[in-house]
Amino acid sequence: MKKNLLFLFLSIGTLSFAQKKEYDKDLIGCFKGSEQNQQYNGISKYWISCRFEKGLSVLNFISIDEEGNVKQHTENGKWWTNNGKYYEFHKNSNLTDIYTYQTLKNGDVAFKSIKIIGEDNDTYEFVDYKIKED
Question: How confident is the model at residue 14 (pLDDT cuts 50, 70, 90)?
């Protein structure tokens, strides 16, 4: 029984990473964004997201609650695209968020969630604004 469960978990893990990973060039670079009360009521979030050519990513978050308390954390992970969807794997949680995305005319990117923090969720939307380099 234990061997069957182990095989099942290994198979599921292999299948989830077996999809072809593409790297949409429009998503490469550093972006900034913010949102208020979308994921958590009473919380304002600000971030800088840097996505690199071969799928590495770094996210730096700052969140501020209604009392003015500030929390900052950095996440390392991986990103890729496939069939018009954006995938963001977070090393700290071992979870992969999935979004639909659209590159806007000015180079910014609009995202809409499909699955975040391990849960189906199609209500979270935000825009990553491309940081222009000098």
Answer: very low
Give the closest residue to 59 by CA, choosing from 94, 91, 16: 91
Q: How far, in Å, are 7, 16, 114, 126 from residue 87 at the CA level?
A: 25, 11, 10, 15
Quote the tokens at residue 101.
């995305």
Assigned domain for 15 exists: no
Phi, psi of 76 (to 5 degrees): -105, 145
- Alpha-carbon torsion angle 35, 38, 41, 45, nearest 10: -30
Q: Average pLDDT in the 82-109 region? A: 96
pLDDT digits (tens, 9 = 90+) for 78-92: 999 999 999 999 999
The dihedral over CA atoms of 91, 76, 61, 82, expressed in degrees to the nearest 10, equals -80
Total of domains in the chain: 1
12: left (phi over 0), alpha (psi -120 to 50) or beta: alpha
